Amino acid sequence: MGLRASIAAACMLATLGLGDAAAANLVVLTNQGATPGVRELATGFSQASGHKVTVIQEAGAALERRLNFDAPGDLLTANPEQFEELIKKGKVVPATVTPFVLAGLGVSVRAGAPKPDISTVEAYKAALIAAKSIGYSFGCSGTHVAEGIEKLGLAEQLKAKTVRTGTGGRGGPVTDYLARGEFELGIQQTNIMVGVPGTDYVGPVPGEINKPCQSNVALLTGSKEPEAARAMIAFMVSPAAAPLLRKTHVEPYPR
Fold first, then answer.
1. pTM listed for this prediction
2. CATH 3.90.640.10 for domain 105-209
């Protein structure tokens, strides 16, 4: 059954009051940057279909271990590059890989610290130069932050005062380190920065320097509930998903 047909079937079951009889228990494995939006989508899909959805954020070795189980879950979200290797390993169904969200970059400071002006590219450049220390991650957002700094001609100038998070036991979002005072200015995806205790969100990275991170979703080959999982993929790219995603400071992937 195709994705559109699957969601139509799921909605029909809900309309007829039969959703509970055919209810599935779905497990969605998510990347850090997509998790807030996926949690909103899971709630919306559950309400529409009657299926239960559990969202688990996994990465690195923990994700690798889970994917090697006989029943790792039903859906996986990740940045596009990761799916190439997962397809080669037979972990996801190639035809189901679907882009669903774009997450832009933002800037935060430690709670109570002065907020720099980042309203223009030139102001953002000046704020980076003025900051005593800067932190950003590896992965998609870190790659895009570094590319932006390179475009501004600041790569060498900022190297000595830059902290990179996400490797060597330094996992977790940039805001964790920012809240502990490990650096003065933190840059990562806006959707995982807004409202974090111990930090204050300043605003989005301006203009063309703000290159968003894309996340895709796909059906895992080990899924025990493939039809319900396909229905959820269709829901995730439907018009009903857009306001749910925007609640978490991201944009639906354009179609």
1. 0.84
2. no
